Amino acid sequence: MKKQASDMSRRQLLKTLAIGSAAGAVATVSGQALASTDNAEVTAKQADGYRETEHIRSYYDSLRSK
User: Fold this and answer.
1) Is-above-0.85 flag for pTM?
2) % the chain with pLDDT above 70
3) How many domains are contained in the chain?
């Protein structure tokens, strides 16, 4: 009977390692996905908004002179 008990603990160890590896892979992939999402949001926020550049100022000046 002892032999059967040791087989069960070995099986339990292998199951635990398999589940732990899968959970680690999921955590890594989801962490990378979140990191790339944060960068995309920051870039999108920076792209939004009005920026008055030199060519826009010259266009406004040309409208005032008419």
Assistant:
1) no
2) 62
3) 1
